[in-house]
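Before drawing any conclusions, I looked closely at one protein's amino acid sequence and its backbone structure tokens, quoted below without any editing.
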Amino acid sequence: MAIDAATLGLHITTFLVWTVGVAILTWFICRRYFKTSRGAADDYFAGGRSLTWYVVAGSLMLTNLSTEQLVGLNSVIFADGCLSGTAWETFAALAMCVTAVVFLPVYMASGLCTTTGFLGERFDLTTRTLVSSIFLIFYAIGLCPIVLYTGALAFRNIFDLQDVPLWAVSLLIGFIGACYALFGGLKAVAVSDCINGLGLVVVGLWVPIAALQQLGGVSVLFEETSYLRPLVATSQVYDASTGTRSNGEPSVPWHVTLTGLMLTNLYYWSTNQLIVQRALAARSLAEGQKGVLFAAAMKVVGFTFLCIPGTIAIIMVNRGVTIDGELFVIKKADEVYPELVKAVMPTWSLGFFAAVLLGSVLSTFNSALNSAATLFGLEIYRIYVNPTASDERVVKVSGIFGIAITVVAVVIAPFLADVASIFDFLQRARSIASLPIISIFIVGIATTGPDAFAAKVSFATGLLAYIGGQFIQEVHFLHVFFGCFLLALTAMMVATYVPCFRALCRQPRVPLAAAEQRKTQSAVDITPWAWLYSVVFLICFLVALLTVSLQIGSSELFIVFWVAWAVGFVALLAAPSTAQQTAPSEGGEKPPQVDESTNAEVVGSASL
């Protein structure tokens, strides 16, 4: 795509207007509407406990949505030849419901800045540190490099910058993201996410709509319903080496949705510091729950720009569509989304598109940096290196650690060009990190019996079992994940309820149960949201309706789904974020009072 000087100037202008505008508006909103809390660490790591539901929702959506999703998931759909990959999107909404109902109240009742802080209270410091270390390693060598690579790949393909090395583009993106995360803290990250989210929704919908207009409308999608099925065992899988399709197993066959897929979704949305940290910064539990569930409602329809473009690309290739006299072809699955953008978007819009795309990259990258800095500062530095460090010192050291993470990510990113499927690589890497974590979180939330010894046995068993399971090539990795999860739970039960095993390991024959009622240390009002269960039911209904409409290829039922979603969306917007009206229990502790004018707590203290 040749770009003349005038067009290049337009691209640069629109790009800078949006990017600089977001930065200025973020600074203004943070200074004007989000007051600084009493502690520097609380303000930097937890946003001063001042985020409203719409900021929580926007930050959750943008933290999750980035080029590893836009580029990666669309490439998976194209390669699979069906919509089996939508399970990562639609079924994630169910995991978010569990987060709002089960996990978030527990976290916020303890006034935590980190999800691993819960493990420290429930089990012990060693368990807390082990999990924090796993998170840090995954962010440093897994998530951050992947985000930089996919962002750099998208920019190079859209603008035909093949002569510019990937490391140079990755370095630029990493530098900008580090500025937001390390100098602005969580509030700057969350607010900029919301602003960029508005642009991404516009651009994200614009791409499939423009493509479908060229093909003849939405009805084209329903002419070959096999492309739309989310629940399949086999499909016409793309072979990149030959450029042809043949019958094979898609990346997400239907049976894994009953096993490992739901567990990995639960890990990501309920225990992952990167995600949950946004909800923990809400100014009340009700605000946090509404924010999480609003993001879940948006997640249900995320397939429109994370999956449908991949399906459209299949149709365009099969029909031999030409763009400006050139045949539309895909040489590598990971290039599907940027190639489609370049084919269907008007040239004048690419500068704006690039700015919004950069925002989506930054939203995930700077969120990962902020979460890594939070974990290092609060879980490693303040506990093991300098327990008497002031808040200001912790924030400074965390910032330095974040810079180190940025450097590591920039170095690793270019080497990911040799990976066959970047989204599949991300999910496999995430599974290795999540397996030893999800088992102890679930048991810690649901029971009081297993102690720290049992948690460590489960952690080690799950991690070693899943690493060994990577050599089992005949079984899908999500089935392996589920089997290792069950093995980790079994190990925890043995380490809890088999006295001779505990005695052999020099542990008390009977574990000391965790206190069922820990003293409340909440920094905000933890009364649940009044509309909590009604919205959870609505989201479950929408997920089921969408899945059925795509599976049977019914355009009529698909329209019904969109009508139902639109009605629910309006109702969710209108529903006040007020807490349930509950009578105080006799002798019970009142929730902390919050001064609405400053968004700062008056009674209650935050546990860092």
User: Anything to note?
Assistant: The beta strands are 235-239, 244-248, 322-323, 326-327, 594-595, 600-601. The chain is about 65% helix and 5% strand. Residues 15 and 355 are 5 Å apart (CA to CA). The radius of gyration is 24 Å.
